[in-house]
Specification:
The protein is α+β, with helices and mostly antiparallel strands. It is 29% helix and 28% strand. The longest helix is centred in the C-terminal third of the chain and has 28 residues. The N and C termini lie far apart (70 Å).
Length: 556
C-alpha cells in the first residue's frame, strides 16, 4: 500500500464525471428562425448505440440529427467487452479496425474456484478460426464513442448537437415533435421518426409515461479499474469462492493502456461508505493481484444491477433502442452488444420505410425480432446471476455441488454459469424469414442466423465474406459449367454474387463452401443486417423474390 494509491483514490471515485474530450455547443439555426426544422430521423442520445445508428442510417443515405444533453465523453470505462458480432456491425460503420488496433483481443476464458491454482475449466469462444474478428476485444466505452464521433463529424448527413436536453415530445400520425432545451434557449424539431437512445434513465420514456418492468438484484459489486503492469494473460478470469474476496465471486480482465478491471461481489446490505474506504479497497485489490504489484486507481464504483425491458420498443413513431429499451446485468457482456444489434436490426428497416420501399409494418418486425433477442439476453443474464449469487439454501447447495464435481465430470462443467457471453441472436422463427424446405448440413447456421465469416478473394484481393454484406440484400449463388450463372432478374435492391466458374469471387481455401454447405446451384439470400433470409439448393428467382418480399413485410 503506497501513498500514491490514496492520492488517486478520491479522483477515481469522481472519474465518471471527468471529461476526456469536450464538444462545443453550437447555436442551432432554429433558435433564430423560430420555425421547426423537419428531419427524417432525430436520435436522442449520443452513446455508442445512438451514434452507431446515425452512421448506419447515413450508410443508407438517410439524414439524421443526434441530440445529446452532455458536452463530453467521460473517463469511466463502463462497457468494456465488445463481441465479434458487434465488431462485424461496426466494421460497416468504419470504426472496427480502429477498435481492433486499440483493444485487447481475447478468445479464451478461464474459471477458477476457491484456492485451486489450476482452472476448473477453460473455454474458447472462437472455436472456428479463419474469421476477420476475434471472439471479443476489451476496449473502454469512451474510445468506441470517440471513434464513432470522429467518423460522424465527416458525414454531411449527420448533425451532432451537444448540450441539448429533451423536454417534451408529442407523437402524431405523420410526425413527432420534440422540444429541446439548450444553453441559448428552447426550440422544436419535427421528424418522421424519433429514436430514443438515451439510456436506462430515458427522458423520452419518462416523457411518454411508459413502463420499464423488470427485476432488481440485491447483491452489490465493486468495480476497480486500476492501472498496472502485470504479467497476467489477456483472458477473462472468473473466480468462484475467491479466497481474496471472502469466498465470493470475482472477475479480472485486461483493458488497453495498462488498465485492468477487478470486479468484486460484495453481497447484500452493503455499507457503502465502509466499502469505499480507501484502505479497504486497496486491501481487496492487493489480495487479488498480489502485494508486490504497484498500481494506481483509474475508476472505482459500487453498483447493483437490474434486468428490465419495455413491453414493446415501437410506439407509433417513437422507437426505443439500447438501454432505453432494455437493461441487463453486466455478466455476459450483453448490454452494449445487444444495443448494437438493435442498430443492426432497425437501421435498414427505417431506411426502406422512409424511401417507400417497404410498408410501415416492417418496423413492427423490429419489435418482434429485438424483443425476442432481449428476452434471450435477460434470461441468460438472470440465470448467470442466480448461479453466481444463489439466494436460497437449495440453490447454494446445487451450485456448490456443481463446482465440486466440475474438475472430474464434463457434464458438471457445462452447468457452471459465470455469465454466458454475448452471441448473435438467431431469428429462425421471425415472420420475415423463409424456412428451409431442403436439407443442409450446417449446424448452427440457417435461415434467421447471422452470416458466418470466411476468407475469400475478389479480383485477386484477399478479403472477408461478411465485408460483402450490408446495406443491400445479397444473393450468393454457386455456379459451375453444369449450372451456369442465372440470367433471371432479381428484385431491385438484391445484389447477385456468383461463386464459381469465371467469377471474380474465389473461395480459395474452400471455407465458404464448407461453412455454408454449398453445392452447384445452391443459393442464399442475405438481408442487409447480414442475417440469412432464406436458402435453396437451386437458383429459383421466384422463390428468392418471394423471400425478399417477405423480408420486407410486403403482403404475399
Amino acid at each position: 500500500m503506497t501513498s500514491s494509491n490514496f492520492r488517486g483514490f478520491s479522483e477515481a471515485l469522481q472519474r465518471s464525471r471527468h471529461a476526456r474530450r469536450t464538444y462545443p455547443f453550437s447555436v442551432p439555426s432554429e433558435l433564430a428562425s423560430k420555425t421547426p426544422t423537419h428531419i427524417p430521423i432525430v436520435i436522442v442520445g449520443a452513446g455508442p448505440v445512438g451514434l452507431a445508428l446515425a452512421k448506419e442510417l447515413a450508410n443508407h443515405e438517410i439524414p439524421s440529427v443526434v441530440v445529446e444533453k452532455n458536452h463530453a465523453s467521460f473517463d469511466a470505462s463502463r462497457a468494456v467487452c465488445w463481441s465479434k458480432r458487434t465488431l462485424e456491425i461496426l466494421d460497416r460503420l468504419g470504426v472496427a479496425e480502429r477498435m481492433l488496433d486499440k483493444g485487447v483481443t481475447w478468445n479464451i476464458g478461464r474459471v477458477y474456484c476457491a484456492e485451486a491454482e489450476a482452472p476448473l475449466y477453460s473455454f474458447d469462444l472462437l472455436p472456428m478460426k479463419a474469421q476477420k474478428f476475434p471472439a471479443f476485444i476489451n476496449l473502454q466505452q469512451y474510445y468506441t464513442e470517440e471513434y464513432l464521433v470522429d467518423v460522424l463529424q465527416t458525414q454531411s448527413l449527420v448533425d451532432l448537437r451537444w448540450q441539448h436536453t429533451a423536454s417534451g415530445v408529442e407523437s402524431h400520425s405523420d410526425h413527432v415533435a420534440l422540444k429541446l432545451e439548450t444553453p441559448s434557449g428552447c426550440y422544436e424539431l419535427t421528424c418522421d421518426y424519433l429514436i430514443a437512445a438515451d439510456g436506462c434513465r430515458s427522458a423520452i420514456r419518462d416523457l411518454l409515461g411508459l413502463d420499464f418492468a423488470g427485476r432488481t438484484f440485491e447483491d452489490a459489486f465493486l468495480i476497480a479499474d486500476i492501472r498496472m503492469r502485470a504479467p497476467f494473460p489477456a483472458e477473462r478470469r472468473f473466480f468462484f469462492n475467491a479466497p481474496f474476496n471472502d469466498g465470493r465471486t470475482a472477475l479480472i480482465h485486461c483493458q488497453p493502456d495498462d488498465l485492468w478491471r477487478v470486479d468484486f461481489q460484495l453481497g447484500r446490505e452493503v455499507d457503502r461508505e465502509g466499502v469505499l474506504n480507501p484502505a479497504s479497497v486497496i486491501a481487496k485489490v492487493n489480495a487479488a493481484i498480489g502485494e508486490d504489484i504497484d498500481f494506481e486507481f483509474e475508476w472505482v464504483s459500487i453498483y447493483t444491477f437490474q434486468c428490465r425491458r419495455m413491453a414493446k420498443f415501437v410506439h407509433d413513431r417513437v422507437i426505443f433502442v439500447g438501454d432505453a429499451a432494455h437493461l441487463v446485468s453486466p455478466f455476459g457482456a450483453r448490454g452494449a452488444n445487444g444495443g448494437i444489434q438493435d442498430v443492426d436490426n432497425l437501421g435498414w428497416k427505417l431506411a426502406r420505410v422512409l424511401k417507400g420501399k417497404a410498408p410501415r409494418k416492417l418496423l413492427e418486425s423490429y419489435d418482434e425480432e429485438r424483443c425476442f433477442g432481449t428476452d434471450e439476453n435477460i434470461a441468460n443474464s438472470t440465470r448467470a446471476t442466480d448461479f453466481m449469487t444463489p439466494k436460497t439454501a437449495a440453490a447454494c447447495a446445487f451450485r456448490d455441488a456443481v463446482l465440486e464435481l466440475a474438475p472430474m465430470y464434463p457434464f458438471a462443467r457445462r452447468l457452471i454459469n459465470s455469465g454466458r457471453l454475448s452471441v448473435p441472436c438467431s431469428l429462425a422463427h421471425s415472420s420475415l424469414v423463409t424456412a428451409d424446405n431442403e436439407a443442409f448440413n450446417t449446424p448452427g447456421l440457417g435461415p434467421g442466423t447471422v452470416a458466418l465469416d470466411a476468407p475469400i478473394v475478389i479480383e485477386d484481393q484477399e478479403t472477408w465474406w461478411t465485408q460483402q454484406l450490408g446495406t443491400d440484400f445479397v444473393c450468393l449463388h454457386l455456379v459451375d459449367h453444369l449450372h451456369p450463372a442465372p440470367t433471371d432478374s432479381l428484385p431491385p435492391g438484391v445484389r447477385l454474387l456468383r461463386l464459381g466458374a469465371e467469377s471474380p469471387l474465389v473461395d480459395r481455401h474452400g471455407l465458404l463452401a464448407e461453412r455454408y454447405d454449398l453445392m452447384p446451384g445452391t443459393s442464399y439470400l442475405f438481408r442487409p443486417d447480414q442475417h440469412i433470409a432464406g436458402r435453396w439448393r437451386s437458383f429459383d428467382s421466384t422463390a428468392i423474390a418471394a423471400a425478399w418480399a417477405k423480408s420486407l413485410a410486403h403482403p404475399p
